[in-house]
């Protein structure tokens, strides 16, 4: 009989296939050094790509962050002192995007603790000056019609950068980040090695979301208008696609996600109402439902179901996992759409979906 510590490679791989979480997989690789050499550092099974919900606050230890796994409904804690005094912009491709008090943008892999620095906020288009000594008016911005105004560092820190999405898992020559920024929700990009953000020219504005899809950047605005630009060269021009607009609610928030080779748009419906928490009352927007649209040759076609897929929405780059490739997700979660609610006034900082990987 073969000792369990000397299991053959094919049997090790088969056992690894039945592990539910990335945490279990890491522990399995760590049993013996030889197992760590045999089993790939990053597993290829679909359920390891399922994001965890990062809980960005711990009541007793400011360095701990919890990660809720939807498959086994457990919370795993990681020591992440790198996140102290950081604002969470979102997540993309397994990286957390953060902004510190000095308005430095950083990427952090919460599992490996790897960090990358993006060009600073002061290098965004439209910011033409920064004077840290001019308290309350540190930033000088160029507005439409060549008007100039100032903003405090606190306001820029709190509201200037809306979202950042990444093109790939790890830095390389074709690595690119696209940001939605400013009060008019414009687009800018930076490539690996750049020291500034460059504007993407477009006739559209008020973008809600953007995504890398089919080798291009797609961006959707508040009206459901869709623009696209290539990433082969410098993506300085976004072309507005002549598509029929969908019927949307005024207070909608739009997201885009790829599923089974199709591009979907998810409309988050919200309603302004009285909200209560532990006897406290305030007024704000609450999510009350969702509408789904699929892109076809004419425009956004409304659909009624996700055809066996599960979507994760929020401050993250939206993700879709097929239940065919991950039946455990369908069997255990019994949901087709997981979302956080960034408009909830009682939750701050807001939780973020993030994929744990070792790249």
TrEMBL record:
Residues 67-330 form the KIB1-4 beta-propeller domain. Signal peptide: none annotated. It comes from the Eukaryota. InterPro entries: F-box_BR-signaling, KIB1-4_b-propeller. Pfam families: Beta-prop_KIB1-4. PANTHER family: OS06G0707300 PROTEIN (PTHR44259:SF114), OS07G0183000 PROTEIN-RELATED (PTHR44259). This is F-box protein SKIP23-like. The lineage of its organism: Eukaryota, Viridiplantae, Streptophyta, Embryophyta, Tracheophyta.
